[in-house]
Design a protein that fits this description.
heterodimer; A: 289 residues; alpha/beta; seven-stranded mixed sheet; three-stranded antiparallel sheet; globular; B: 356 residues; alpha+beta
């Protein structure tokens, strides 16, 4: 396909502006840097922040992986991957290990990331305090003063009402002992992977015009209480296709009589394990030898 | 047996092909031309240009055609295209005082220099479906006067007597909403930028709410004018400004209830609206919302009305942001939902154990 756009769609000045915001974000881990988000050819709320960050990071030598809900083949992941194939003509992959840049929505890959990789998160609401205080002017002040009492009160009220912290995704974290940060709507199962990874993690919120970052080997702690410690939870099953008992699972309803199966949400992880001979409860029967 | 949902790519391609076919509709019905849309759906074209922040009637007409008449979708197409255009410079402020007006009315004076000119308005039409239009659309030629030349402003008459607040001229370049992140509180120039490209329905409802008592504005339409203005740009190599084109705009200036005190003589206050094209509902709404947002500088009480809340108004006026975020909930969320499922199951079983 002929390409009438600049490399990775955005013009060089815009990419420079985004890179400056990224550098500031890396310098102040967890701080939300305002940036002049552009109107992209996909809707706000569909990954425009992540797309702009990816566009600013990509080089022609990169190999891009795009996932949504952990899967490479979900429609929006397909659409974003296609966008960069068309506008940047970069190589793409479905394998976590081979990718240099991974754009994700709602998951962190199961396979540990390595030095040199960049994980770009799509972020709908970057402000962890937003649902406690709707005003941006007010929440920016709270971050500046490290005034996070409201968040702890919220978690405490959860426990008082439900006997547990009733947040299961977009679970708030504290970055390097300073900023409270929204890790984007990843399940809290993924939270421990945010901390101490050798990869660079970048977060882009297009509609809300914010970029933030977790540099490699940064300490990221999920908020909790001593007597109610954070727990990374998942469905108490093993994958029915690859047998993995430790990966995050999607529940798939298989009939209208309560039948269900559990499969890895990370499609590359599951496929790699199956290729290596791992089998689950519902794996197709092998031909009898 | 579960089969992984592969083939997203083919499904997308097929959906796009289906959409293209539906857009065209019945092939025995003649295809709409851009010229037809531009000429006969002119007010839709105007809205797309205004909220798309790009003055190009042909492109707006094409966007309407491509969007199957969904104006927000057409505005989105224009916005996305606009992002890719190089920024060559900026024009000088347009002089709406020198407008060649096809319509100019004032609600505050019975007659005034330049006169009341109705122009092409729906205002006094009876809203009766014209069944004759279904058969043929030709209209008899209307008697027409030449556009008004420069006519004095109503606010100018009031200004001369000191009856309306002074609006001092400023040469400070306004900040650009499309090139810088919005920072709050926003100054008036930035607020007006956000309002002029904001969703017509949203701005209208906010303005209406202020008329009904949620942040009272007490507006009179001092003047509403629609017509062509020249756009001029300074060319550094030439050392002077040249006209690069003409655009049609709608300008509304409202005269609002006064401020004043024992020491400060009473004065009327201003609300301002300026929008691309003939878009008067939007321009009037904009001037009411502009005025309501100025409560603090005019020493009025904050009654907690939505229209007085700058952050509420500015952060929610853009229909492209709003529609994108609203519609994104159609995207898969099953990972988050799964974590909620597990949580609700855990909470329920915890309660059951406690009860036993």
């Amino acid at each position: 396909m002929s390409n009438h756009y600049n490399f990775a769609y955005l013009d060089e000045q815009t990419k420079r502006m985004i890179r400056r915001a990224i550098l500031k974000g890396v310098a102040v881990p967890g701080y939300q840097v305002p940036f002049a988000s552009r109107e992209m050819p996909m809707p706000y709320g569909w990954g425009t922040g992540g797309v702009q960050v990816t566009a600013a990071c990509l080089t022609p030598e990169d190999r891009l992986k795009v996932i949504d809900q952990g899967a490479d083949d979900t429609t929006n992941a397909v659409s974003i991957r296609k966008f960069f194939q068309r506008t940047a003509e970069v190589a793409v992959t479905e394998h976590t290990a081979e990718a240099t840049v991974i754009q994700t929505r709602h998951r962190i890959p199961e396979r540990p990331l390595t030095a040199g990789q960049i994980l770009v998160y799509q972020v709908p609401i970057p402000e962890p305090l937003r649902f406690l205080e709707p005003r941006e002017t007010e929440t920016r002040r709270m971050h500046a003063l490290e005034d996070y009492g409201l968040m702890h009160v919220k978690l405490y009220e959860d426990i008082a009402r439900n006997g547990a912290i009733a947040t299961s995704y977009a679970y708030p974290v504290k970055v390097e002992g300073r900023y409270v940060m929204d890790p984007s709507p990843i399940p809290k199962f993924d939270n421990p992977k945010l901390s101490g990874t050798p990869a660079l993690q970048l977060f882009g919120a297009g509609r809300e015009q914010r970029i933030y970052a977790i540099p490699p080997f940064t300490e990221v702690i999920s908020l909790d209480f001593e007597d109610y410690p954070f727990e990374a939870t998942k469905a108490p099953h093993a994958c029915d296709l690859c047998g993995d008992g430790g990966s995050y699972l999607d529940e798939v309803i298989t009939d209208d009589a309560g039948g269900r199966m559990f499969v890895c949400s990370d499609t590359d992880h599951c496929a790699s394990r199956q290729a290596a001979g791992h089998r689950g409860r519902l794996s197709p029967q092998e031909d009898a030898a | 047996m579960y089969v992984a949902v592969k083939g997203g790519e083919r499904a997308i391609d097929n959906a796009h092909a289906f959409l293209a076919e539906e857009r065209r509709g019945d092939p025995t019905v003649p295809d709409l031309s851009i010229a037809q849309i531009r000429a006969q759906m002119a007010l839709a074209v105007n809205r797309v240009m205004a909220e798309g922040s790009l003055y190009d009637p042909d492109l707006a007409a094409l966007a309407i055609k491509q969007a199957r008449g969904d104006l927000i979708e057409a505005i989105f197409l224009i916005r996305a295209y606009r992002t890719t255009l190089p920024r060559l410079g900026h024009s000088n402020p347009v002089d709406t005082g020198a407008m060649a007006a096809v319509r100019r009315i004032s609600a505050t004076y019975k007659d005034l220099p330049g006169g009341q000119v109705l122009g092409p308005t729906f205002d006094y039409t009876h809203r009766l479906i014209d069944f004759a239009l279904a058969a043929e659309g030709d209209a008899p030629e209307a008697p027409r006067a030449a556009p008004l030349g420069p006519v004095p402003r109503v606010t100018g008459f009031l200004d001369r007597e000191g009856l309306i607040e002074d609006e001092p001229a400023s040469d400070t370049p306004p900040r650009d909403l499309t090139r810088e992140p919005m920072e709050l509180p926003a100054d008036r120039a930035l607020r007006l930028q956000a309002l002029t490209r904001g969703d017509e329905g949203f701005i209208l409802s906010l303005a209406y709410s202020s008329q009904r008592g949620y942040g009272r504005t007490h507006p009179f339409v001092g003047e509403l004018r629609i017509g062509e203005v020249a756009v001029e740009m300074d060319i550094p190599e030439l050392g002077f400004a040249i006209e690069i084109g003409e655009i049609t705009v709608t300008e509304c200036e409202t005269v609002n209830q006064f401020t004043g005190s024992k020491t400060q003589p009473a004065q009327f206050t201003r609300g301002y609206g300026l929008v691309f094209g003939q878009t008067e509902r939007k321009a009037i709404s904009m001037s009411l919302v502009d005025r309501a947002l100025r409560w603090a500088e005019l020493g009025e009480e904050n009654t907690g009305a939505p229209v007085q809340d700058q952050e509420f108004v500015l952060m929610h006026a853009d229909n492209i942001q709003a529609t994108g975020f609203l519609e994104h909930i159609k995207l898969p969320h099953y990972v988050d939902f799964q974590s909620e499922l597990e949580l609700v199951r855990a909470l329920r079983s915890g309660l059951r154990e406690a009860a036993e």
